[in-house]
């Protein structure tokens, strides 16, 4: 059974290689766009994974540090924690000596910077999603031109004459669309994750400002 399964996987691999080579020269730039996109997928996945933090636990830790040891201790907690929430808390608490207005401005500025960081390199994923199908369609046009050239040269419209060009045309289109769908799926996951992080930043920013106002009023 294992031997049969291995042969089946080998046949699938050989068939995929065959289809790739049959697609013609345009399959290579489409493959490069896939590799290019996957490189940024890995970079974004790692970056967003490192941005994850239990914001509720972190807020409680910061507020407890402020209550027990003062603002400087809370700033130290923020500097030792990864993620956008920790960064905006650090920016705001660092300006605590200048008043709450300066704290709020610092949090807003830091929030804008963190949003830009979260969205960094997403444009390259959009580029792959756009370019890969265009390369596929271009390969389709080239394949159809080859098919009509074959008809013209043979003075015949039999299926055998045009099969090569049409096959190339369909393969490049399929490969380009598959690449776009793969990268689009990752992009949608990243966008959902970024939206969640941005919402979390906004909620925690309001909470820390409210907490600081309460402490000042007391």
Layout of SSEs?
Layout: H1 2-22, H2 27-50, H3 55-69, H4 71-79, H5 84-93, H6 100-118, H7 122-154, H8 159-217
Q: Strand portion, in percent? A: under 5%
Helix and strand content put the structural class at mainly alpha
Runs in which pLDDT lies below 50 for 5 or more consecutive residues are 1-6
> What is the arithmetic mean of pLDDT?
82
Series of secondary-structure elements, N-terminal to C-terminal: HHHHHHHH
The percent range for helix content is over 70%
For the sheet with most strands, the description reads: none
Q: Give the strand tally.
A: 0
CA radius of gyration is: 27 Å
Count of alpha and pi helical runs: 8
Q: What's the quaternary structure here?
A: single chain
Global geometry: rod-shaped
* First-to-last CA distance: 75 Å
Note the main attributes of this structure.
rod-shaped; disordered N terminus; 8 helices; single chain; mainly alpha; about 220 residues
What can you see in these coordinates?
By secondary structure, the protein is mainly alpha-helical. It has helices at residues 2-22, 27-50, 55-69, 71-79, 84-93, 100-118, 122-154, 159-217. It has eight helices and no strands. Helix 7 packs antiparallel against helix 8 (159-217). The model is unreliable at 1-6 (pLDDT under 50).
């Amino acid at each position: 059974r294992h031997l049969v399964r291995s042969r089946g996987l080998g046949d699938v691999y050989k068939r995929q290689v065959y289809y790739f080579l049959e697609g013609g020269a345009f399959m290579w730039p489409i493959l490069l766009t896939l590799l290019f996109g996957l490189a940024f997928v890995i970079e974004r996945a790692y970056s967003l994974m490192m941005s994850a933090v239990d914001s509720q636990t972190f807020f409680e830790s910061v507020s407890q540090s402020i209550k027990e040891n003062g603002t400087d201790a809370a700033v130290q907690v923020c500097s030792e924690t990864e993620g956008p929430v920790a960064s905006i808390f650090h920016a705001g608490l660092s300006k605590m000596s200048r008043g709450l207005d300066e704290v709020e401005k610092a949090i807003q500025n830091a929030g804008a910077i963190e949003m830009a960081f979260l969205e960094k390199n997403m444009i390259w994923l959009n580029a792959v999603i756009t370019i890969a199908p265009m390369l596929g369609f271009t390969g389709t046009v080239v394949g159809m031109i080859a098919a009509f050239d074959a008809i013209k040269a043979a003075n015949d419209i039999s299926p055998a004459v045009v099969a090569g060009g049409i096959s190339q045309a369909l393969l490049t289109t399929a490969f380009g669309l598959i690449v776009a769908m793969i990268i689009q799926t990752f992009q949608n996951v990243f966008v959902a994750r970024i939206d969640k992080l941005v919402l979390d930043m906004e909620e925690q920013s309001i909470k820390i400002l409210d907490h600081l106002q309460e402490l000042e009023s007391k």
